[in-house]
Design a protein that fits this description.
Layout lengths: L3 E7 L6 H7 L5 E5 L6 H5 L5 E5 L5 H10 L5 E5 L3 E3 L3 H11 L3 E9 L5 E2 L2 E2 L4 H8 L10 H4 L12 E2 L2 E2 L3 E5 H7 L11 H11 L3 E12 L9 H20 L1 H21 L2 H15 L2
Parallel strand pairs: 1-2, 1-4, 2-3, 6-12
Antiparallel strand pairs: 4-11, 5-12, 6-7, 6-11, 8-10, 9-12
């Protein structure tokens, strides 16, 4: 299928990379590597349909931008190294995108490795939505838009739907939309780079769709589990950066304060590595 390319960003991406690349063997694929030392490069170069480019690790968004620059096709599938497409999912995504002229980006249905649903539709971060997440308020009414808009009110992901944003584990993107809004903001090293991008697409009058007719398995956290504490700190700081960029300094200050209180409380309530990670994230916010 000549109208779609695949981009995969890697950094010590074993053990899932071979399955990932095998699942898109029918498509021209660019692997952007950020300094892997675990055999990732050797695996990637073993596939005839894959071209490897290497660059300094400046974050996920920078890797995606490089991959986009290395392709020319009208559609690009951005795929995590710990994810793989099932059957003709790529073709189905393109078919859906072509049928929806306003679509800038289409996300597939994500599955966990055991076949269960991995909820991928999200709501953009706001101070209130971050409070409902980090103070566990969403657990009081998980299907409520008021208390769980951050996770789209636990919507069942059973039908195609226009959404605020979808997980970056697998995203089919229209090149014309990229040309309209530009690439990813590389100021987000990791986390919220895809939500910021989709926010800008929607602000430009484009649509973001979830389409369950295409399925992708996503391990989830497979590439970052070993450094979960540091990644969690990066995540909460990226929330504040997103709010500052799109809602202003006052909203960002409120979000930062709410997150800081929530993390301090979590750090006191949880023991072991989890509690240490919350306390480290709180210290990271103080340096923001």
């Amino acid at each position: 299928m000549g109208d779609v390319a695949v981009v995969v960003v890697t950094y010590d991406a074993l053990p899932w990379l071979e399955r990932c690349l095998s699942s898109v063997s029918g498509f021209s694929t660019v692997v952007v590597d950020h300094g892997s030392r675990d055999g990732t490069l050797e695996v990637a170069r073993g596939f005839d349909h894959v071209r490897v480019v290497e660059q300094e690790n400046r974050g996920v968004g920078a890797g995606w931008n490089r991959g986009l620059a290395e392709t020319i096709e009208p559609w690009v599938l951005l795929l995590n190294a710990d994810a793989w497409v099932l059957g003709d999912a790529v073709e189905r995504l393109v078919e859906f995108g072509e049928a929806h002229a306003g679509a800038a980006l289409v996300g597939p249905k994500l599955l966990n490795t055991d076949g269960t649903l991995q909820r991928s539709a999200r709501g953009f971060p706001t101070p209130w939505r971050l409070a409902t997440e980090y103070f566990f308020l969403r657990k009081l009414a998980p299907r409520s838009r008021a208390l769980n808009a951050f996770y789209a009110a636990n919507w069942d992901h059973a039908h195609a739907r226009e959404v605020e944003w979808v997980s970056g584990a697998a995203m089919l993107v229209r090149r014309a939309a990229i040309e309209q809004v530009g690439g990813l903001d590389e100021g987000f090293f990791m986390f919220n780079e895809e939500s910021d991008w989709q926010y800008r697409m929607r602000a430009a009058g484009r649509q973001v769709w979830f389409f369950p007719g295409a399925e992708v398995v996503h391990v989830g956290g497979g590439a970052t589990t070993r450094e979960w504490g540091r990644m969690f700190t990066t995540q909460v700081r990226s929330h504040v950066r997103f709010v500052r960029k799109h809602q202003g300094a006052a909203a960002a200050g409120l979000a930062r304060g709410l997150l800081l209180v929530a993390l301090v409380l979590r750090g006191a309530a949880f023991r072991g590595e989890r509690g240490r990670s919350y306390r480290a994230a709180a210290r990271g916010l103080l340096r923001t």
